[in-house]
Write a structure and sequence with these properties.
mainly beta, globular, about 160 residues, six-stranded antiparallel sheet
């Protein structure tokens, strides 16, 4: 049950790193999110990623000027959408996975070690196993990326012969 503050605002729903990992199939070094700051099923999830110079993705990107790769930022955005989809429906079954479909993305600023990126991912539409989402990524209240995309959950067997 959601707590209501005296001001009439609801208490944020949060998740620490250990709980957050339970909603993802990813494992180190591919878990990018550090915590969930707030969520409302069927509406939004707000997640935090703290960028460190020790992050595997930064090791060679670029040695003379460390920059967090946009491709890894997309993975963090996908992870926030995966969490939102499950919170809005149900946890993935053992024989299910999520697949990102179309994505439109715009990156407006460089993300570097020391930045704390806040991803606000909203549910634009949820029909069965298909989620359409939008995400805004910010560092210190300045937009660093904006995306819109789709995500589908499916049974692994529906993908045909497993080559992995």
């Amino acid at each position: 049950m959601t707590e209501i503050r005296e001001s009439g605002e609801r208490e944020p729903r949060t998740m620490g790193f250990t709980e957050l990992k339970g909603w993802l199939r990813h494992r180190h070094p591919m878990v990018y999110l550090d915590r969930v700051l707030d969520y409302s099923p069927g509406e939004f999830v707000t997640c935090l990623m703290a960028v460190s110079g020790q992050t595997d993705a930064i090791a060679g990107h670029f040695p003379e000027r460390a920059v967090f790769p946009a491709s890894h930022m997309m993975q963090a955005i996908a992870q926030s959408a995966i969490i939102l989809a499950q919170l809005s429906t149900s946890p993935l079954a053992d024989d299910e996975i999520t697949l990102i479909g179309s994505v439109k993305a715009r990156f407006t600023r460089v993300v570097v070690p020391g930045d704390q990126v806040v991803f606000t991912t909203t549910c634009e539409s949820l029909r069965g196993d298909f989620l359409t989402f939008a995400c805004r990524a910010e560092v210190s209240d300045r937009t660093v990326a904006m995306t819109r995309g789709t995500l589908v959950r499916t049974k692994v067997s529906a993908l045909g012969e497993q080559l992995w």
